Amino acid sequence: MKQVVFRDGLSVPALGMGSWNIGDSVVSRAEEIASLQEGLDLGLSVIDTAEMYGSGRSERLVGEAIRGRRDQVFLVSKVLPSNATYEGTLSSCTASLERLGTDHLDLYLLHWRGGVPLEETLDALVHLQDQGLIRRWGVSNFDTEDMEELDSLNEDCAANQILYNLEARGVDHDLLARDRQAQIVSMAYSPLGQGGALLHEPVLATIARAHETKNGPATPAQIALAWTIRHPNLLSIPKAGSRRHLRENIAALSIELTSEDLAQLDAHFTPPDEKRPLEMI
Ligand code: NAP
Known about the structure:
It contains 10 helices and 11 strands.
């Protein structure tokens, strides 16, 4: 399975599992838990959540899904910028750990940059790491200049989680390469364009037809995912609330896009030829 490697040498599969909007409905709850568990069964260890998602409902559901198998999971959560003061970060982390039913996170991210000075949040993240409550820390939605500033304060950032899909590929200009050079793992969020119009783009269906998976011709979602993880050390975190989507997505790990495929995609989703401000959802 294609892997990404963190700066401390730990490697995880290049495909993880998102969890925004899970746990919001009692009707889909059992299937959402089954989907995360099947992902773990099939070797996807990374689960991404956040205190923001459903005001803790996503973390609670994830906690239920991983009960008894914490050692198979690389668990990621995030602190909201409004909670990211020194004390606020410590209490947010404690509350996340409680909802998740664990004593540590593998990665803890500042969800986006807010009004709290970065130095203050960093002090809290380093403290949490010293206490063993988080193994690594990182950021999310940080553009190039934010990353430069961060690096000038502390060079231990493990990951930057950013919006990245065929329709939102401005980071192809500089941020992805910059972070890779700094040994920071880029995590691609909303890699399927949130399951919207992107998956209906005819070019994806055309390319999909030319690739075989063990379950038959590939699908547009698989092509969209394979495109994100074509980059070395990029961790893509699609959310699949059903086992059907989960199984489909995991097969993207074995799809290698050809240079002709990539050229077709570039012709349709133009690569940036200059710096674009980082998009976010
Ligand atoms: P996404 O992963 O691009 O898309 C999820 C949507 O696609 C869901 O509606 C899902 O439906 C559908 N889907 C999944 N697999 C599919 C398939 N094979 N075929 C067709 N549709 C499929 O969007 P996302 O949830 O926004 O992003 C992924 C994760 O990134 C989030 O869950 C969250 O963990 C993280 N995220 C982080 C930030 C941030 O600011 N750091 C922002 C947004 C998201 P079902 O659920 O029905 O399977």
